[in-house]
């Protein structure tokens, strides 16, 4: 079976609706679907990264919507889309912060894993095996979108971001995280994580699909988004923890974007 013929567990409704979906990427993550919640499995790096991603998302969303981050359930009343939700590593903690979460993923196996774990945890999360384009076509809208470690895996970035623009309410915002295309990101995310430490299966990332912050800002601008904030995420090998950084965007970074007014 050639790469283009690789079987996935996702059958797109139409070429237009699923323009951003890369079947090979869906197949790759579907093959690991049962391991999403194993902190020592293939998604160990995301488990390590998750507290930093959640803290950033919570703080910028509270700031954007005028909420107090110190209270219980500060995101209550907000409808948030976790696009490319995988097994729900972000959806669950954001649900615990009070948000109404819709988790969407192109992999049916990922969605089944997410649904089973949410039920086990007693969480009410609406998980759907659907693409951003299909949600936009259905007329769905959200106060905020979580677009975390997804954009480097999509096939058509303009189509994907245009769909996100349609899905977002006028006063809403989108939180993104991705990988910079630098020598350091190749050394850490590919050589280190995939080949030396073997935290991730080989082929999880394609360095050529990583986006420099300037490239992501341009792609967002072309899809009528303004970039309002950017933070780097830095890994500390001795502690195994991550932290936010105002200047170091060499590997992982986060961005807050919102719709360009009157666009």
From TrEMBL:
Assigned keywords, A-Z: Methyltransferase, S-adenosyl-L-methionine, Transferase, Ubiquinone biosynthesis
UniProt keyword S-adenosyl-L-methionine, yes or no: yes
GO cellular component terms given for this protein: mitochondrion
Gene3D superfamilies associated with the record: Vaccinia Virus protein VP39
InterPro entries the record matches: SAM-dependent_MTases_sf, UbiG_MeTrfase
Enzyme kind, highest EC tier: transferase
CDD domains to which the protein is assigned, alphabetical: AdoMet_MTases
EC number(s) stated in the UniProt entry for this protein: 2.1.1.222, 2.1.1.64
GO biological process: methylation
Keyword S-adenosyl-L-methionine belongs to the record: yes
NCBIfam families per record: UbiG
PANTHER family listed in its UniProt record: METHYLTRANSFERASE, UBIQUINONE BIOSYNTHESIS O-METHYLTRANSFERASE, MITOCHONDRIAL
Protein's name according to its UniProt entry: 3-demethylubiquinol 3-O-methyltransferase @ 2-polyprenyl-6-hydroxyphenyl methylase
Source organism (scientific name): hydrothermal vent metagenome
Upper taxonomic lineage: unclassified sequences, metagenomes, ecological metagenomes
